[in-house]
Amino acid sequence: MYVVDKEYAVAAKAIDLLLEEKAHAEGRNLYAGGKARAMARTLALQGPRALPNALFDALMSAFVALASQRALGREEAALEAFFAAVDQAWGASRRRPVTEVLAQVRSTRPYAAALHQEDSPFPSLEMLIPSVAQTARRWGHSLGLVSVLTDEQRVFTDDALRTVLEYATSPIGMTLLTRERGAPVKTVLRGSSADHPSIQLADLLAGAAAAVTERHVGNPSPAAEGLWPVIVPLVEQSSLMPYDDPAAQLVGLEARRARRAR
Question: What is the pTM of this model?
Answer without folding.
Answer: 0.85
